[in-house]
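Possible regression after last week's pipeline update?

I re-ran a chain I had predicted before the update to compare outputs. Posting the input and the new output here so someone can diff against the archived version. Not blocking, just want to make sure nothing changed silently.
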Amino acid sequence: VDGPFRASLEVPVALTYTWLNNAPIAGEKNEAHRARLRVEPSFTMLWKANNHFTFNANANYSTNETPWAKLITANMMSNYRSLSRYRASLDDNHSAGASAKVSYKDMFSGLFAYLEGGWTRLWSDIAYGTTVDSLAHTIVEAANMPNHSNTYSLTVYGRKDIDWHTMQIELQATGTRGKSEMLRQSQLTTYTSKGYQLRGTLAFDIVNGYRIDYGATWIRNRSVSNKHTATYCEWRQHGKLNLRLLPSRLFFNLNFNHTHNSSLSSKKKDYVFIGCGLLFKMSKAVELNLDADNLTNIHTYSSRSLGDMEEYYTICHLRPLSVTLTAHIHL
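New output (post-update):
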């Protein structure tokens, strides 16, 4: 339907055939095949109530074959500490979701805001997970156990432009809550998760040609089961200073990034990265660019994240402090 109210309904139909033939392993099934007729409807709605308020809503359902990443027969890591094994079995994974959004905008006052909520449900007849054997091998498991998960989310957003876009303030808050099931040590384990995120940005012109951009994000995630609790908390901030030293000729920029992760097991929980650059336009055809990266000369960077009751640690080895001079010639 055209006009201030629009709605659409799509019902795609697909016929799929899957054939799996893994490398043979004694005592394990390595071949499976089947054909499926899949119907995946989706609905969207848009209503422009007036010049300020707009309402959006959508709902969808989808189904897909067992993900290829889980169709593993055997994978022995080079350090011999991890063994992944999966018995060939094909099954459908189902997904359904719905979301609604109310938006507000006032172009003359430079005010923009929205409120958005969503729901997602995943379910399957086969549960996937891991178990640790007596030799400390981590083995990927699959079992015929019906399981499901539900996730709810709510987001509030607001932005204010001041003095014809020379200053901008932006705030966003997001909360998520979920309940899921997963396979652990051959047992179906139920766990709940909560996540919060606060994000804000501030950008303004000091004077014409001199601009500051700043942003900060606070993240907290927590997963709880009967025997285990995992918490992740991180604070991030970044900033950028742009200076026009000579009109249309000489430009300077300075940027920094700072992260504080209280969940890290190491003593070092803060990392600060600083970089800067100088651009000189000699003419329309020739440009000189001087860049300095990693001025704090950090050699390693550690991070920690949380997902599905599993904690992930990453260590990155970085290039040390460097200065680069580049010339661009446009013919």
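Follow-up from reviewer: compared with the archived run. The longest strand covers residues 187-207. Marking as no regression found.
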